[in-house]
Design a protein that fits this description.
23 strands, single chain, alpha/beta, six-stranded antiparallel β-sheet
Length: about 450
Amino acid sequence: MTDLSQIVKAYDVRGVVPAQWDEPLAELFGAAFVEVTAADAIVIGHDMRPSSPGLSGAFARGAASRGADVTQIGLCSTDELYFASGSLGLPGAMFTASHNPARYNGIKMCRAGAAPVGQDTGLADIRALVERWADEGAPQPVAAPGTITQRDVLTDYAAHLRALVDLGGIRPLRVVVDAGNGMGGHTVPTVFEGLPLELDAMYFELDGSFPHHEANPLDPKNIVDLQARVRETGADLGLAFDGDADRCFVVDENGDPVSPSAITALVAARELAKHPGGTVIHNLITSWSVPEVVRENGGEPVRTRVGHSFIKEEMATTGAIFGGEHSAHYYFRDFWNADTGMLAAMHVLAALGGQQGPLSQLVAQYDRYAASGEINSTVDDQTGRLAAIKAAYQGRDGVTLDELDGLTVTADDWWFNVRASNTEPLLRLNVEARDTATADRIRDEALAIIRG
């Protein structure tokens, strides 16, 4: 059997281009996507990677061969593809490897209304069908193949976002945006056009080779240029988008990173002002400040596992108005429960521009605790190391354990979570405490066991 284990992942598909991931295989995926979703029409978009147009075109041909009409929206961000899926009511496929290096590519797939396609909601079936066809040969095209047409939705996407967050009345702001040569360079000019923003554009040229730095703002080395530009120019804030521009990271006027948990809390407060009493989803490694702020603003916080499929499922189940993750994914009911970094950035701009103080002062009320950030450790035995941590803390006075996602250990003045990576031999540690000394102590204690 053809081994697709290095291509099909839990929530997207990635492979080295073109050795593993080529156009004939993409065509099979397009056909299988239509078969599994039973779609008679789909929408497809792609990022700026050199292989993306060819892969997305092959996927379109495969989908059309099974009778589906295909709308190609061309270059777009992932949240722009979600907009198209939601507004057009169509299943969608986005060709991107997100923040990963240039040699990768993949697919993010969704059902109509931007509903997720996860391992248990169709992806495993798509994989099985592709594997069978790769061995036995693809089925013959249906008698009436679908059509393939082009459509530009960028202006409609921008209009939808601007209808959700009004920036017209804010004070003028100077904002530095680092697009990392990714799709933010395509979407930001249209979304920000005509607003009271002085835009300082960094690396807006679309270039899938990422000549300046990887388009992964979660890695501190990739926001160094943005931090320096904010400090040099006296900008009010900086924004950094990842490769497919579905995530946005924020730095304040001093060039200091703003925690995604603080952004989650800020946006939650604003969404609760529009939807009093609403539910807000947060994953279990966001800061204690998130549920605190939600409750202070009359909302109901709901804690869930890490990962977009879990967040989206919980949002659909609870009718939540908003959800946030430590990784700078932000989900909105008004955006089909999908994640959009652009909308979160607009909330930050609206909050900052609606008052006179600097961003550092504004977010201080939402950034209340000391945190370690995510620390990865390579281990030989993930299960064994997790068991060792559980044994070390189980039964301690004043300490509780839960295993919603990995292992979370909680005391009165600190907590930590350890989770196993699904794709690498890693354990991921996150620690938070009421002061830095305690956070450092618990971090070192946990790491000694993890790496023991």
